[in-house]
Amino acid sequence: MEVIQSFTIDHTQLKPGIYVSREDKGFTTFDLRITEPNKEPAVAPAAMHSLEHLMATWFRNSEVKEDVVYVGPMGCLTGMYLIMTGSYTVQEMRRLTIECLEWILTQTEVPATQPESCGNYLLHDLPMCKWECTRYLNRLQNDFHSEYTKLQITLDDGRIFADA
Ligand SMILES: [Zn+2]
Fold first, then answer.
1. Taking a C-beta distance cutoff of 8 angstroms, is the pair 120, 52 a contact?
2. Is residue 68 a contact partner of residue 59, using CB atoms and an 8 Å limit?
3. 75: CB partners within 8 A, 6+ apart
4. Residues whose beta carbons lie less than 5 angstroms from ion ligand 1
5. Among 124, 92, 85, 93, CA closest to 31
6. Low-confidence ranges of the chain (pLDDT < 70)
7. Residue 80 Cα, ligand 1 centroid: separation in angstroms?
8. Distance 121 CA to ligand 1 centre (A)
9. What is the pTM of this model?
10. Are 32 and 20 in contact (CB under 8 A)?
11. Overall number of domains in the chain
């Protein structure tokens, strides 16, 4: 099995920010990194679930809605993946994400939290979601990071794997 590209990022050097995780097949995958991996607590599952509903709702109604393919949480709960068609820069995504977070902070309920519309409708936490959004917003505005530090991995057969 090949080591996949996102595992070649040095997660010990990764700061909250927005990164291009990959660009291929006409899609750009953005890494919206909310917390510092393995150093800060990851986003709690209920807060992350609410963030997914809110962020997906905003992006799918935004000026770039035609290009939004997917919005969803990372399994490690330290960030969100946003997949777009076409090419967007991290600065464009930074502006849009700031607008999205500001909108979330004005919300009084999480959309689509009925059993008919959500697979785990009780797993939501809007106050904690807003707490995470406030901190992430502040980081995007004042302490922005967008350059990955790459790991160099040597595969079992000796090949050096620096970039997938
Ligand atoms: Zn849901």
1. no
2. yes
3. none
4. 118
5. 93
6. 5-7, 152-153, 159-164
7. 14
8. 6
9. 0.88
10. no
11. 1
